[in-house]
Design brief:
- Transfers a GMP moiety from GTP to Mo-molybdopterin (Mo-MPT) cofactor (Moco or molybdenum cofactor) to form Mo-molybdopterin guanine dinucleotide (Mo-MGD) cofactor.
- Its cofactor is Mg(2+).
- With 192 residues, this protein is α/β, with parallel strands linked by helices.
- 26% of the residues lie in helices and 21% in strands.
- The strands form three sheets. It has a seven-stranded mixed beta sheet with strand order 5-4-1-6-10-7-11, sandwiched between helices. It has a three-stranded mixed beta sheet with strand order 9-8-12, with no helix packed on it. It has a two-stranded antiparallel sheet with strand order 2-3.
- The longest helix is centred in the middle third of the chain and has 11 residues, at 77-87.
- The chain is globular, with a radius of gyration of 15 Å.
- The N and C termini lie far apart (39 Å).
Length: 192
């Protein structure tokens, strides 16, 4: 079984005011915490899903970059994951993490990967405090056709995918900091 590690890093960061994935925490950019958590679990390939505007800002050489089509920039996570799956043909699973989650850990990724042993599961999407966390999840390649259909129909909400596939929802503590993502400067100030 091959698991690719994917960082979603193509958003506008409009609420933050600048590309938030390049903010620093403990001497690393936010996106690097997610990337290093995937790398520590020996996932391969490691992929950053971004756009052509942000691509020059990334400095890591140990990853592949998959850019959105110029006509489809800022289409959201559903489009980005679909695009990655179309580009990466060999992986069975795709471990997807947000680029704005500086508290992600290798242990969290390792725990999520253990759930891939469940037969017939198409996606592993954690639940924390009653809410699904689709940007901290694993998606099997067999979800690609459904994702493509949604994208082709102009759908952008990743939640629509979960009504059409077999999803395992492991529950995590509401106090788990792993799921904290930074959307605004105030969010980040509260965490420091």
């Amino acid at each position: 079984m091959m698991i690719a590690g994917v960082i979603l890093a193509g958003g506008k960061s409009s609420r933050y005011g600048k590309p938030k994935m390049f903010e620093s925490y403990k001497g690393k950019h936010f996106y690097e915490h997610s990337l290093d958590a995937l790398k520590a679990n020996h996932l391969s390939p490691l992929i950053i899903a971004t756009n052509h505007d942000l691509l020059p800002m990334f400095q890591r050489k140990d990853v592949q970059y998959v850019c959105e089509n110029d006509r489809h920039t800022y289409q959201g996570p559903l489009y980005a994951i679909t695009n990655v799956m179309l580009h990466e043909q060999t992986a069975d699973w795709f471990a997807v993490l947000s680029s704005d989650a500086p508290f992600i850990t290798p242990e969290f990724v390792r725990e999520l990967i253990t759930f891939t042993a469940h037969n017939g599961v198409d996606a592993i999407v954690p639940i924390q405090d009653g809410r699904r966390q689709p940007l901290f999840a694993l998606y099997h390649r067999r979800t690609l056709k459904v994702m493509q259909q949604l994208v082709e129909n102009g759908e952008r909400k990743i939640g629509l995918l979960f009504d059409r596939i077999n999803v395992l929802n492991p529950t995590f503590s509401k106090d788990d900091k792993v799921f904290i993502n930074i959307n605004t400067r105030q969010d980040w100030l509260r965490q420091q």
